């Protein structure tokens, strides 16, 4: 249809057309001070490798991890399994795991390794014998299994898998004549959540838990019903712990879940928790007498921090562990002797691994875990603990500011910390990587301390001449940290001082800090961000006339909000934003969460509660040239959010362009080429409205 309307084609910017604006980079256009050949250029994204999911063998001698690389031909982030000899550091690809693979898990005796992969285009679970490298598939799967875990005796494997359900309908279509070409049949929807980001329109059915023999065979379904069940963990060889929400009104309460015990002998199911709120991630102790889990009492707030609990195996004697610690618990693993747990916490921009004894006393083990997202500097990572042999030999993902995640190992008793990989030694030592500085600034609103990190261009000097990009994280309940990020390095390499911030609402600083935006987002987090920008201008790090702002998702709404409140930025790029909380609460894949927890009102009875926090209500205040970008298959902040903003800007005669990313869900940077297109189009837009660039063009007669 677009061919019939050529006059409309110029109104939607394409990736190529906007990127063409970047013919000259903003900071280096008139300077030879930097060696451009050593910059972190766009194509370097394809050179990056990083490590995830390091799994240490029970005897502590071998680590198997997922080694990620970017496939230039398929434009994919691919993972392959590699093994490391802990003693010597020797690495080799894992025999028997040819092709893309992930989720490695050791058998209890350490002789076999379970992993997920695909065969002939179908999902697969395979086991490889570590002494011979021979492998075999466990079963034929039509749906992808996930969360696979070994039974304590190594004889069975539990996992989750989607089970198709009966499609709703109210009529039976007549039979088509042979050879006829009728239209596709109608699709009837009767679920409240009927599409989800990254999955599109959902098939009828639910995730259920299965068990199959470790020698292979037919999976046995052990949970049933319309509710999703998952998170399987073995309490003993005959009992599984699973989590899910079996309440009749589960669609109306998206965070609710309980932990259940499933007896495999008769498939009886017993609830072990019963409070109003999510209880999940059950983890039995080595002797099976105690269960660690995470959750909280649901108080219908925008954000509530997970807490760490213990209970007896029958669900009794529930007690919170380390209640006074402000960090948010993430991954949890028992120590081999069952006398303590190792817990990964979000903690002031980084992930720290702490050992917590059963009285709640805490000892720090590792402080540099994280950095497994190479696009933006989010904290992320994981660890595993050897169950036998040495004293708590731990494998973990090590995070750095100047390179993607590596595999590290440490002994908890000696603190002998080693980094075993150097996956980008062939690239990064030969580039001028941006140095990262940490700053802390008092918010102009109330003096609250705000933490931020600044990436500096290779030829930086504090002379007040450099352009600055404020890059805002999404969530909004998430956390940036001092970790490698291709987007940040790209901006800095092209001459931008780039600052990324954890304003109020960020996680890792305690529940009160995150809850400071409850029913007030966006709000005073705006003051936090502006305080950081003003501080950098005062330090002479940036030219006050060359300020730019961008962010995605939660950062997209804050970018849109910022330009309704100030004209200090020369240009803005709002990526996958929320513009109208009413439409977000009615049509997003997390609409129930937005309505029930964030706004806590109904849009049909109190529209003002939604509109007063929506940038769409203040578009008439915007004068800043503002680019809008969204994935065409985004169901988290759907395309119509960005389109509302773009149309409103056009109607108010504000310079704007709309970029739609074909095939992309909410996570635009999920493929290398999309990450490149995102950052380069943003910089192209900024270059177009950079006052220094405009003056330079005028001086040369362009």
TrEMBL record:
Residues 484-689 form the Peptidase S9 prolyl oligopeptidase catalytic domain. GO terms for biological process: proteolysis. Keywords: Hydrolase, Protease, Serine protease, Signal. The keyword rRNA processing does not apply. It comes from the Bacteria. Residues 1-29 form the signal peptide. It holds the Pfam family Peptidase_S9. The keyword Ribosomal protein does not apply. One of its GO terms (molecular function) is serine-type endopeptidase activity. This is Peptidase S9 prolyl oligopeptidase catalytic domain-containing protein. It comes from Hyphomonas atlantica.
């Amino acid at each position: 249809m677009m061919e019939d309307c050529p006059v409309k084609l110029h109104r939607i910017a394409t990736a190529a057309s906007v990127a063409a604006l970047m013919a000259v980079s903003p900071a280096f256009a008139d300077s030879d001070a930097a060696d451009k050949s050593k910059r972190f250029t766009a194509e370097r994204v394809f050179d990056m490798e990083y490590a995830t999911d390091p799994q240490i063998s029970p005897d502590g001698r071998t680590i198997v991890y997922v080694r990620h690389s970017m496939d230039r031909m398929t434009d994919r982030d691919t993972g392959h399994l590699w093994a490391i000899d802990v003693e010597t550091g020797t690495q080799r690809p894992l025999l028997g795991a040819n092709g893309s693979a992930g989720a490695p898990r050791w058998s209890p005796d350490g002789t076999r390794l379970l992993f997920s992969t695909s065969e002939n285009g179908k999902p697969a679970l395979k086991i490889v014998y570590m002494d011979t490298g021979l492998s075999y598939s466990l079963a034929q799967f039509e749906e992808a299994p996930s969360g696979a875990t070994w039974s304590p005796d190594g004889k069975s494997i539990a996992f989750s898998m989607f089970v198709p359900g009966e499609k709703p309908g109210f009529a039976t279509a007549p039979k088509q004549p042979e050879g006829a070409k009728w239209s596709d049949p109608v699709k009837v929807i009767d679920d409240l959540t009927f599409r989800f980001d990254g999955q599109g329109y959902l098939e009828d059915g639910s995730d259920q838990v299965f068990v199959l023999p470790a020698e292979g065979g037919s999976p046995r379904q052990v949970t049933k019903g319309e509710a999703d069940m998952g998170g399987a963990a073995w309490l003993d060889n005959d009992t599984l712990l699973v989590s899910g929400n079996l309440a009749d009104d589960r669609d109306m309460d998206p965070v609710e879940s309980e932990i259940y015990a499933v007896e495999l002998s008769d498939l009886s199911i017993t609830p072990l928790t019963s409070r109003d709120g999510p209880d999940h991630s059950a983890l039995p102790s080595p002797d099976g007498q105690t269960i660690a889990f995470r959750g909280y009492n649901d108080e219908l707030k925008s954000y509530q921090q997970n807490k760490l609990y213990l209970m007896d195996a029958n669900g009794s004697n529930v007690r919170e562990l380390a209640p006074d610690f402000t960090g948010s618990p993430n991954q949890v693993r028992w120590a081999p002797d069952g006398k303590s747990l190792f817990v990964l916490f979000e903690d002031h921009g980084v992930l720290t691994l702490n050992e917590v004894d059963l009285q709640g006393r805490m000892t720090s083990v590792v402080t540099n875990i994280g950095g497994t997202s190479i696009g933006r500097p989010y904290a992320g990572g994981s660890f595993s603990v050897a169950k036998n042999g040495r004293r708590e030999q731990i494998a973990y993902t090590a995070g750095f500011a100047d390179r993607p995640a590596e595999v590290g190992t440490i002994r908890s008793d000696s603190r002998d910390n080693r980094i075993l990989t150097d996956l980008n030694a062939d690239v990064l030592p030969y580039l001028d990587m941006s140095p990262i500085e940490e700053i802390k600034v008092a918010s102009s609103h109330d003096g609250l301390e705000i933490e931020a990190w600044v990436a500096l261009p290779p030829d930086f000097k504090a002379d007040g001449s450099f352009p600055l990009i404020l890059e805002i994280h999404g969530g909004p309940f998430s956390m940036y940290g001092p970790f490698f990020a291709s987007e940040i390095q790209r901006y800095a390499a092209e001459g931008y001082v780039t600052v990324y911030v954890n304003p109020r609402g960020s996680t890792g600083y305690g529940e009160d800090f995150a809850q400071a935006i409850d029913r007030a987002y966006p709000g005073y987090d705006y003051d936090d961000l502006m305080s950081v920008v003003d501080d950098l201008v005062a330090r002479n790090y940036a030219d006050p006339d060359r300020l730019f702002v961008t962010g995605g998702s939660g950062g997209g709404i804050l970018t849109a909000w910022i330009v309704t409140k100030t004209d200090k930025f020369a240009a803005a790029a709002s990526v996958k934003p929320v513009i109208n909380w009413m439409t977000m609460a009615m049509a997003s894949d997390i609409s129930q969460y937005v309505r029930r927890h964030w706004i806590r009102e109904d849009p049909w009875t109190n529209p003002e509660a939604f509109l007063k926090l929506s940038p769409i209500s203040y578009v008439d205040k915007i004068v800043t040239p503002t680019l809008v970008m969204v994935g065409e298959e985004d169901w988290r902040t759907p395309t119509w959010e960005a389109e509302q903003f773009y149309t409103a800007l056009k109607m108010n005669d504000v310079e704007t362009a709309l970029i739609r990313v074909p095939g992309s869900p909410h996570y635009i940077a999920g493929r290398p080429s999309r990450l490149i297109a995102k950052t380069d189009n943003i910089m192209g837009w900024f270059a177009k409205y950079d006052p220094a660039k405009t003056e330079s063009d005028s001086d040369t007669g362009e």
